[in-house]
Every structure is written in structure tokens, then in C-alpha cells.
Amino acid sequence: MNSRFLTNAVLSLVGAFTVVASMVWAPATFMWLMLGAGVVSVALAAPIVVRGRGSAQRALDGIVGILGAWTIVASLVFAGSVVTWLGFASGAAFAGLALIGLTLHELFTERVVHSFEVRSTAAEREFASING
Question: Could you tell me the sign of the dihedral formed by the alpha carbons of 86, 46, 101, 39, in that order?
């Protein structure tokens, strides 16, 4: 399995969880969940430093890393309904970036197309010319 697909799939789950958690849990609890989502997203974006994954995915990982860092800062600085809505926006942005990443993965992944070609052998051609 390609690492781009895996990290984008995990990022989509993190984004969806953050969106739902922002509306379910109290702001004091959600602040810690938002901090965790930011840490996970920064950890997912870290492979851009370790190895290249294409310029489009590298740019997307850079944006995810910046958004993850902002999510960490926002979870520690803000409180109340502000952290709820900032977390909701971060989760929606994570999910959107993951969708873009999954689309890029599909566009740039080399697909093997299997096709069958009917070829006649020399014996079949000779048989066809005799009976033909």
C-alpha cells in the first residue's frame, strides 16, 4: 500500500473525528482532543522531510503540517466556544485536504491496464488459408 494513500486516509479520519468531536464534547474536553488531532496531523506530515513523495503531495503535506501546528497552538491558547469553532474548522480543513490528497494519489498512481489481444498462430493462419 502506498504511504500517500495511507496518510491521507488517516488524515480524513482525524478530520472527521475532529468535526464530530467539536460538537459532541464540552470545550474543556475537546481542547485535548484538538491538541491530539494537531499532533497526529503534524506526525503525518513529517515524512516530507524524510523522503520525497512528489511535489504535489509534498506541498499538500506542508499545508497539513502548518494547519496541524496552528491546531496545536489554537487548542492551547483559546477556550470556550472559540476553540469549538476553530477545532471544527480545522477538522473540516483536514478532511478537505485529505480528499485532495486522495484525489492526487489516484491521479498520479500508475495503473496497470490488462488487455487481451487475439493473435493467430502460423498454424491457424495456414489452416484458415487451406479451408478458407
Answer: negative
Number of structural domains in the chain = 1
Rounded distance between C-alpha atoms, residue 120 and residue 1, angstroms: 38
0.90 exceeded by the pTM? no
Give 68's contacts (C-beta < 8 A, 6+ positions apart): 37, 38, 39, 40, 41, 42, 44, 45
85-88 contact pairs (CB < 8 A, 24+): 85/22, 86/34, 87/18, 87/21, 87/22, 87/30, 87/33, 87/34, 87/37, 88/18, 88/19, 88/22, 88/23
Q: How far apart are CA 86 and CA 27, in angstroms?
A: 11
Residue ranges making up the domain that contains 12: 3-131
pLDDT over 60 at 16, yes or no: yes
Contact 68, 41 (CB under 8 A): yes
